[in-house]
Predict the structure.
Amino acid sequence: MNAASVPTFPPVDVLVIGGGNAGLCAAISARRAGASVLVVEAAPKFYRGGNTRHTRNMRCAHDAATESLSGPYTEDEFFDDLLRVTQGNTNEDLARMMIAESKEMLDWIVQQGVRWQPSLGGTLSLGRTNSFFLGGGRSMLNALYLTADKLGVDVRYDAEVLDLEIDGGRCRAATIKHPEGLRRIEAKSFVAAAGGFEANIEWLKEAWGPAAENFLIRGTPYNRGALLRLLIDKGVEQVGDPTQCHAVAIDARAPKFDGGIITRLDCVVFGIVVNNRAERFYDEGEDIWPKRYAIWGRLVAQQPDQIAYIVFDASSLELFMPSLYRPIAAASIGELAGKLGLPPEKLEETVATFNRAVQPGTFDDKVLDDCRTEGLTPPKTHWARRIERGPFYAYPVRPGITFTYLGVRVDARARMHMADGSLSDNMFAAGEIMAGNVLGRGYAAGIGMTIGAVFGRIAGREAAAHACR
Amino acid sequence: MHAADMLKESDRLMTVCNSCRYCEGLCAVFPAMEMRRAFTAGDLNYLANLCHGCGACYVDCQFAPPHEFSVNVPKTLAKLRAGSWERYAWPGALSGLFRRNGLAIALIAAASVAIFLFSFMRAPAFSNPATAPGGFYAIMPHNAIALLFGGVFVYAIAALGLSLRRFWTDIGEPAATLAASKPLWQAIRDAGSLRYLDGGGVGCYNAGEKPDDVRRFYHHLTFYGFVLCFAATSVATLYHYLLGREAPYAPWDLPVVLGTLGGLGLVIGPIGLARAKRTRDAAMVDETRFGMDAAFIVMLLLTALTGLALLALRATPAMNALLAVHMGVVFALFLTLPYSRFVHGLYRFAALVRYARERADEKRAKPGEE
């Protein structure tokens, strides 16, 4: 491509690539620091902001209860939670810095027009640790866009970055595909906030093999990782493992993309989960659901054909949040197996074996109760109750990929590291595209938004400082 | 859309929304929805009438069109709501008035004005205004006015009451709820402040992406203007029968002060609402009911304008004709009240009473969860 022949947009101080939580926090923070800012968003207006549209809350440390948070959540506790879910796969300095900055985020984000609400129904009991956006993620995003507009940030939709002119550690200009054609734009600083690559099935297959064909993508179809690949190809250091992502087990009947929150299922702990050979494969009652929901996507991904079935009986039907699709129902286990396309005798045997192993206990889904199995492999260590009261129900589930962790390496000022060991001069990153710095594996609810907002704010500030030197 | 289709679409949406619940902090509809796992026709009609149409849930929804789930709660519930009013209308034979409502109300109003004008013209005082400028009762005896307007008022109240009973039975709420003071008081406060017409705190979504309080402001002017005008008439009636003081009253007297203030509200309010309606994002509006909304706004506006004109010109020869027109408009307004946009207030208030009762029960069942 001959850059000189492409028409240009007027140059700006800071070009923000991607218009989600991270991008908008960067844009607002850069604009407030005095820089001229353009945000280029690859999606059309309704789909703007990537997966922010599907989010609901943000995890921030705080030393005391607030109007919307039921108790304190200290920096140390936050860090301990992060260490536990990532099993140590985190950059401690960056993580501690982010957690410290998250405290201020509770107020800062409100100053940008976002509103909190107390956590109410169906929220995995996160009322102490997580702050909920009133009206959800799209409401939050709308508020950020209104504020950005008021401050004079320019936004272009349907504007995808096709190329970056990177020389050494310095980026000079970007080439953008826009409805009116290609445009070249020069900027003094660049903020990459264009999300991960979970909607790029081909890329997922590079890491997961053919199994990735059977993954469902919970969020935006626009996160195809084009910018991430461009950066890595042009010498930015990558961080993280391409197979690591936030994946949960969602209803297998969900659309391939963008089914969002309403296809999630919170009923694993109430029944048993079998693969398509009608065999159990993991302890469904290992821990309370909020601490375990994020492992089931990977567990199902490892099963044949990447499908599994949650089987339970009438006694559990109303114990969990309703979801979009009704469960598949049958009068007997054999009939249920028929409807699911599972071998009936095998499912009957699996259920009977499970039922025989269930020990007497007092069922309580709010605590780690004493309802467990004895002599069963794998065991069900809590909430084990016999599946005996018809009608019997099942939900088919598949891995639902929420977001990916492979990204670009950054420092505490959100500045990108180059693969040759140097620091980039004017390229910064925030959000999912650098989440792997903090989140090497595992997941804790609301932490994606913390990474986006905290690093977005820092990236914007640093990008503006660089541009306005 | 057919009534059954509207219920089906509302059921689909509430199933989506109940699986999401991101909007639960915005208004009363979503917390009420969360108290249920499945939705009967009565439940859906209740939720539809509880919805104030602020639009926040549409603007905030990650599944709104063009998303394939195509979730548009304000528009869908608006359609279901208007359809429910037809079915609750008493007598059922007149429920058709809700269809092509603009035309129906315009015809009734025109006929009513014509009849009043025609009858007045036969009164001796009409042709000779000099005999009694400002003397209303020279044209039409007070008792005749009282009988006529008392009659139409009682009819409107009875028809509205019987319609309300049908709503209450449909949503399956016991009659006792309406007699309990706490839910009633809560509903009066919620309706009086239009608590749920604020998009969860920032205002309504009207024109464009920026929420504002325009509709709530003009609705307050309209509603409280209406209340003041009604109070003016009530005070005047009491003056007449209890104190023997006959109209016309001096400009500083209570009925005139109340009527003037109310009239001003009832002029500015409906104009503001009409403008807000015209500029509102069409995606959220049930455009098939435009005539009904416009007809009620125009009737309120005409009531206020003719009333204020009558006050201003009551000492001139124009008084007689203005009085006839004003009475014609007011008569038509009350006659059509049970078959007009007016009923939204009745059903919404009743839905708020039920919601207050449900919330109180829920709090009792799960103390501390708020």
